[in-house]
Amino acid sequence: MVDDMVQECIDYIGFTMDMEGSRLSGDVESVVRDVLCGRLAAQDAIASFIIKEGLDTSYETGFDEMSNYPDTRCLVNYFNIRDRSRLRHVEHFMVNVRTAQLFLHPLSGPLNFQYLRDVHSHLFADIFPSAGMIRTAEASKRKDFCRPQFIERCSREIFTRLADEDYLRNVGDVDDFVNDLAFYMGEAEALHPFRDGNGRAIRFFFSRLVYEAGYKLRWADADADRMLEASIAAIDGDYQALVAELGEMIEVRA
C-alpha cells in the first residue's frame, strides 16, 4: 500500500477515535501502520494484544448477547469485561486493527445491507458475539432510532433505492453527489441497525461507497464535533450541516 493510502487510513482512524471521544495513541498507530504495510498480520496483532493485556478468553455463556451485563454499561463480550473504560480500551484496539485490515483488503460484493452487516461483523467479531446481528431492542442517543421490528423493512427500502441509483457511481456533479451521500448517510444513521458500533460501521461503509464512486474524503480535514451534530440533524431530515461538512472533505480520486 502506497504511503498516501496508509496516511488516509491513519487519518480515518484518528477521526473515528475523535468521534469516540478518544485519541489514537502512538503505540496503536505503529501497530496499524505495520498492518497496513504488510509487516504484521491483523490476527497476530490481536493475538499479541490479548496476551499482553491478560484478557480472559474463557467466554461465559448464558447471557443475552444483545444486552449489557446486569448492572453494567458493558455489552456482553468474549472477554467477560464488565468495566466500561477497560472494554473501550480493548474494543478500540481491535476495531482499529480490523479497520486497517479492511483498508488493505476490502470486502467484495455489492454495497447493500448485507455488506454493511459484514463490515460490522468484521470490525467487532473479535470482541462481541453480537457483531453483525440486527438489534432487537429500542435504541436512542439524543434521537430515537428505527424501532427494531421495522429495521429489516426500512433497510430494504433504503438499500434498494441505493442500488437503483447504482450506489451513486453515475452522479457526475460533485455537489449532487454530496447531497445524495448526506441523504443516505442520514438514513443509515436513523436506521441504527446494530446494538453498538453503528457509527464506525456506517462510516466505513460510506467511505467505501465514496471510493468506488471515484471520490475520496479527506478525514484529516473533518471536525468530529461538527460531524456529530450534522449527523444528528440528518437523522431528522435536516441535511444542510452534513452536506456542508462532506463538501469540505470530498475530492475527486486520482
What does it look like?
- The chain has 254 residues and is mainly alpha-helical.
- The protein has one domain (3-252): Fido-like domain (Fic-like fold, Orthogonal Bundle), CATH 1.10.3290.
- It contains 10 helices and 2 strands.
- It has helices spanning 3-19, 26-36, 42-53, 84-104, 113-124, 151-164, 174-191, 198-212, 224-235, 240-249; strands at residues 215-217, 250-252.
- It has a two-stranded antiparallel sheet with strand order 1-2.
- α2 packs parallel to α4.
- The longest helix is centred in the middle third of the chain and has 21 residues, at 84-104.
- The protein is globular, with a radius of gyration of 18 Å.
What is the element layout, followed by pairings?
Blueprint: H1 3-19, H2 26-36, H3 42-53, H4 84-104, H5 113-124, H6 151-164, H7 174-191, H8 198-212, E1 215-217, H9 224-235, H10 240-249, E2 250-252
Antiparallel strand pairs: 1-2
Helix pairs in contact: 1-4, 1-9, 2-4, 3-4, 4-5, 5-8, 6-7, 7-8, 7-9, 7-10, 9-10
> Tell me, what's the shape?
globular
Measured distance between first and last alpha carbons? 15 Å
Broad structural category: mainly alpha
Low-confidence stretches: none
Q: How many distinct helices?
A: 10
Question: Roughly how many Å is the radius of gyration?
Answer: 18 Å
Number of structural domains: 1
CATH fold-level label = Fic-like fold
Main sheet characteristics: 2 strands, antiparallel
